[in-house]
Amino acid sequence: MIVVENLHKHFGGFHAVDGASLQIEKGTITGLIGPNGAGKTTLFNVIAGVLPPTSGRVTMDGEDITGLPPHELFGKGLLRTFQIAHEFHSMTVRENLMMVPAGQTGETLWNTWFGRKRIADEERALRAKADEVLEFLTISHLADEKAGNMSGGQKKLLELGRTMMVDAKIVFLDEVGAGVNRTLLMTIGDTILQLNKERGYTFVVIEHDMDFIGKICGPVICMAEGKKLAEGSLEEIKSNEQVIEAYLGTGLKNKDKVGA
């Protein structure tokens, strides 16, 4: 589904992504792990159009999407969430969901004058869809709450809800567990699995919690120094000598500490 070929992203003399090549298969939940500074988030940002690549190529379903801006990729079904949730804190949870779909009738001045019935019909449909999403996420009780009052974990659920308001094909999740308590993290994991199985979403997940990676991910890719270092099941990754060296700078004698 996504093919990354010899991707580079340089910041002056620093090579944050340094010739990374990898593939994300449709219908998978792929874990992306690696030590701090490995280039994981920068790779996400380049794929999702937040940052332009220095060189290299990204394709989605065979189409070259290298360097396309986020709004164009959004229209193609490629979405990206952030380690720190980007909610509109003064709007309600429901309103945060309703504003996601692009090209709404009420966005133009002409339509606000002459298309009021169409706008009203559209808003009713968006409200119904938002309420359906909130019920799916089991946070219907927060519909009228200001999004800024939600907990960190609830905001992560809201970000998943945004992907459900459009026809998402692949979602890049950056440290979904950051600032989230253990119970809610498992709820988020269950939601990701459900979206994958029932709605066909493909996910790529950056996460340091190996228990969470083990719960939801099939293939796992490990990055180090801006490149793909290894790929396989979590158990294969955890027993890979190169991965252990990247995390610990030591040999196999400490391999049980990887992901701890």
From TrEMBL:
Q: Taking every annotated instance into account, which residue ranges of this chain make up the domain ABC transporter?
A: 2-250
What GO molecular functions are on record for this protein? ATP binding
Q: Which InterPro entries match?
A: AAA+_ATPase, ABC_AA/LPS_Transport, ABC_transporter-like_ATP-bd, ABC_transporter-like_CS, BCA_ABC_TP_C, P-loop_NTPase
**What Pfam families does the entry give?**
ABC_tran, BCA_ABC_TP_C
Could you name the domain of life of the organism this protein comes from? Bacteria
Gene3D superfamilies named in the record: P-loop containing nucleotide triphosphate hydrolases
SUPFAM superfamilies recorded for this chain? P-loop containing nucleoside triphosphate hydrolases (SSF52540)
Q: Could you tell me which PROSITE patterns the record lists for this protein?
A: ABC_TRANSPORTER_1, ABC_TRANSPORTER_2
The UniProt keywords, alphabetically, are: ATP-binding, Nucleotide-binding, Transport
Q: Which PANTHER family match?
A: CONSERVED COMPONENT OF ABC TRANSPORTER FOR NATURAL AMINO ACIDS, CONSERVED COMPONENT OF ABC TRANSPORTER FOR NATURAL AMINO ACIDS-RELATED
Q: What is this protein called?
A: ABC transporter ATP-binding protein
Q: What lineage is this protein's organism placed in?
A: Bacteria, Pseudomonadati, Pseudomonadota, Alphaproteobacteria, Rhodobacterales
